[in-house]
# Entry
Amino acid sequence: MKRSRIPIFLTKRALDAVITIFLVMSILFLLMNSMPGGDMVTRVCPFCGEETKTQLRELWGLDRPLWEQYLVFMKKVFTLDYRLVYEQEITSIDELLYYLPYTLLLFGTATIISYAIGVILGIRLLSRGGNWLKTFVSGISMVFYAIPAFLFAIYFKNWFIFKYEIFPPINIRLGGPAEVLEGSLLSEHLANIQALLPAMALPLIILVLVGLARPLLLLRDHMALLLDEPFVATAKAKGLKETKILSKHVARNALLPLMSDASINLAYIVSGGILIEYIFDWPGIGTQLFGALRVLYYPTIAAAIFLLTVILLSSMFIVDVVNTYLDPRVSL
Amino acid sequence: MNKTDSLYCGHCNAVFHRACIMDHFYYNRFCPSCKKNLSYLDMRYGEPAKQREPAREYTEVSQEYVPRTIRKPLWPPQKEVPLFRTSPAAQPEYTAQPGYIVQPGYIYERKPKKGLFTQVRGFIFAKPGESTSTYGRFRHNKKGMLGVYMLIAAVSIAILAPVLILYDPVTYLAEEDEYVNHPPTWKYPMGTDVFGRDIYSQTVWGFRSAMMLALPSALLIAVIGTVVGLVSGYYGKYVDAVLQRISLAFLVWPSVPLVALIVFSWGGSQAQLAIIVGVAFSLWPTTARAIRAEVLSLKTRTFIDSARISGASSRRIVFRHILPNVIHITFVYMTIAVASALVLEATFNFLGLSSPAVVTWGQMLSFAYHSATARFGVGGFVSWWAVLPPGLAIAYMVFSFFLISTGLRESMRAAVRF
# Structure
């Protein structure tokens, strides 16, 4: 990778990200405007008088033509102006940014752990011996791949938190950004995370079990393909141990398609995981999003979709960079 | 001899030098001594503790080429030989040459079409070694065929559902109080739920709604993903750039809020349709990307060039020459789509975004959970007979499609290798 290509690459990716966000938010605008049952004013304040409704419509710009609303919506999207009225001090994006660390904590840990375990188990699955154990591991991973994740979440919560009381429930209510004192945000986050850590165990276990199958099965498939390559025979002929051949020679080559698959897998982990967040009342973006979907509070929905898109795009970017670092054939 | 210099066969314990055996395995896939189908990894280090059976004598295998068929002579003497097979009708000036005689079975002649009986016999008695196509290899893939049989069973249950059910799945309620929320008995083979509805009938009826949900979404994904992938892979440049951006946007849209918003905008009675559309929207980018990657590699092959030289339009190249080579990828992603459609459907029932008039497995699960929670509180007793049948049915369907996709991938892989 030449040094001079990095700025071009970064510009390209930034442009890509902007276009993607634009398209995603356009789809959102389309969906929100195709909803029957009146516009937002009717939903927020269904029993208001006609005068109040007209005033609100004027205030929120809903009496203007649709294309103008669309332009204003796009402007608000890219200026991070997610609020109903101008007097609102804490916008939806502030609120979601407050909950962002907890989402990142849960999903980041789950992704890293599931990929680590998946890679280690995937390498072990091809080694000689322990046949019934291998069948058991791949069977279990297939089961978790096949059965819906939220089903596990609901029943595990039911049994292990409430019935047998093995894992603690989340017994802390975060106040949101409104109750944060000036300058003590970081310490508050740290205190909250410390309080949340024991309750994180069960959602983490479920997310890991669900995310485990794809890297594991994929790695096994790719490695089985690579075992017939001549370089494996060479390594074997050099007198290397089987463990070393599998982990140092075969797995390294098989990791590359795994990494390029990771960006798609991330999308599925996040879109399925926000539901698990909601089930466990984990104070994250997913819970906020579903709470907003219940009452159709548009600013939070838009802000949550925006933030999720940004998270996914940046994690895809990181995956790409790591992929470039690992694979000499890929250039930026 | 050093310990790592010698290797022995795991089957017949014959000892080889590592350099020799490595050279042998570079070209062959069998043990030189026992002729079993082995790879290098089946060889073991060192010398065997004792010889299991005496090493067999090396019998001379004739390496001479024995022709099985006699080639037709190149008659008539040809001045120019076409590079690829063409029909005689395409080259009238060539067939009109004075010395030209139509040779039956020669390249210009089409193979005689097999009769129905021959085709059926070949279908039933074909041997795995003889099958060269992806489809032929799939038919001898144990996992894949098991999945297909499971799917056939599910489809026949769905078709025969009106015959198989014992009670009406929606309207029938057990009259007697003792049979409400009752474990399996002779009268109700899988028990009843808290409304007194027969769970067996509901589970059987669920096969219908699962099919109604899974097949359209799979079809939508196949059509959208394949067409977009083909177009963006073949035409490249601006078309590719635009389609890639669009597919990225759909890829990052989380599917659950998408379907929730569609359900909100269309109403709960359209929940099934919304789930079909939502699954298709969130899953077509993966299909399109996989197909695009395959098309990009196919585009550089020579058969595309020869098609183009012979004057085929790009539409014909895409749909006649490239599409048959990528269609199996579409099938793989279709099977994955079916599984995720079922899972998403169950998810939406738990969120309460569905119509109660349609009996689905997800709805049964959701009902079992919510009724138990309403009665005994969170963590209370959930009746196992209400949870197991629909849960197992979902797992059954997903597992059958998973097996099909695994079998497809395995039979595709062999096609890629050789």
In short: The CA atoms of residues 6 and 331 of chain A lie 10 Å apart.
